[in-house]
Amino acid sequence: MKYTVSIFVLVLLSLVMLFLNLNSGNASISLMDIFQDETAQKLIVDYRLPKSLAAILAGIALPISGLLLQELFRNPLADPSVLGITSSAGLGVAMIIFASSIAGYFGFVNNPWILSIASFVGALIGLLVIGYFSTKLKSTASLIIVGMMIAGFSSAIIGILQFFAPSEKVKTYLLWTFGSISGLNWTQVLVFSLMVGLGILISCFTLKGIMGLRLGEQYAHSMGIPIKRLRTLILLSSAILTAATTAFVGPIAFIGLAIPHIVRILFKETQILKQFVLVMGTGVVFMLTILWISQLFETGTLPINIITSLMGAPFVMSIILRKSNFKWDE
After folding, report:
1. CA atoms within 13 A of residue 6's CA, in its CB half-sphere
2. One pLDDT digit (tens) per residue for the chain, 330 residues
3. Cα separation, 325 vs 29, whole angstroms
4. Domain spans of the chain?
5. DSSP H or E run through 110
6. From the CB of residue 170, how many other CB atoms can be counted at a distance below 10 Å?
């Protein structure tokens, strides 16, 4: 499929799924009611539209983060969740939720800036650990094991915090781990947008370097590409994108891993800039579709993470079985 046709199809699918999401929900209110009913206007503008925008932002952030990490580590299994980055970002959020409740101050929990900063610090620490081990280890399996250890360590610290936290905060955190796009207000969507925009802006400065890095570090050096600076920018961008999504949507699994591979399989595009755009478009369509599916059940909204895990886990297993087809496999 040609690149321009692919972009047109993705934009069209995104608009269709956005329309479906604005028309979907427990209340039997359609988008056309916005011009006649004040209640419908408030529901769509203050609830459904922010939820859809949050899905769009998550659909941009996680797949781009996964694409950058796969290119940096030359590892088809690299993504924020598999490498433990999502878990470390979740640890930052957990420390705010639990530690503030233990201290008896709850103002931090409702502050989008504090949650974003805590998630960013957690994600950045996890990425720095992975970045260090990636320079020491040559085995793909070893790097994945390190990611599992990061996730295990984060879970252990979270468990300690849960033990001392009030039961209502434990329930709040458990619900957060399921992943939810509902309930975001416009201030939170604005903060989410700013962080994703910053992460994407930083990532744009890495694309030229990634093209050189694909041909090997020696070739990249000969082209004058600063490898250390490129690595720093990729890690920083991935940390911001992962932190923003984790803070506002929860720890969404498999999206960052699956979408870049889906793009490679479907569109057969090798140029990094075109891949970059196609990954964003595919991620948006995918997240809006998942959001729509989650609202189809009469008993309530199904957690996002359940749907992504059901769809993503088989895909990851297929990647492991087929990973010898990837040119950067060790």
Report:
1. 18
2. 688 999 999 999 999 999 999 887 766 676 666 767 777 788 888 888 999 999 999 999 999 999 999 998 888 878 888 778 888 988 988 888 887 766 665 556 666 677 778 888 888 888 888 878 877 776 666 777 888 899 899 989 988 888 887 777 787 777 777 777 877 888 889 989 999 999 999 999 999 899 888 887 777 777 788 888 888 899 889 888 988 898 888 888 889 988 999 999 889 888 999 999 999 999 999 999 999 998 888 777 788 888 888 887 787 777 667 655 555 544
3. 48
4. 3-325
5. none
6. 16
CB 319 within 8 A of CB 325: no
**What single-letter amino acid sits at 197?**
G
CATH number 1.10.3470.10 is the correct assignment for the domain at 3-325: yes
Q: Which residue has the tokens 């989008």?
A: 112
At residue 152, what is the residue type? G
Q: How many CB atoms lie within 10 A of CB 5?
A: 9
Q: Which of 283, 243, 249 is nearest to 263 (CA)?
A: 283
Residue 153 tokens, joined: 């360590």
pTM, two decimals, is 0.86
Contact present, 33 and 303 (Cβ < 8 Å)? no
Of 245, 236, 260, 277, nearest in space to 312 by CA: 260
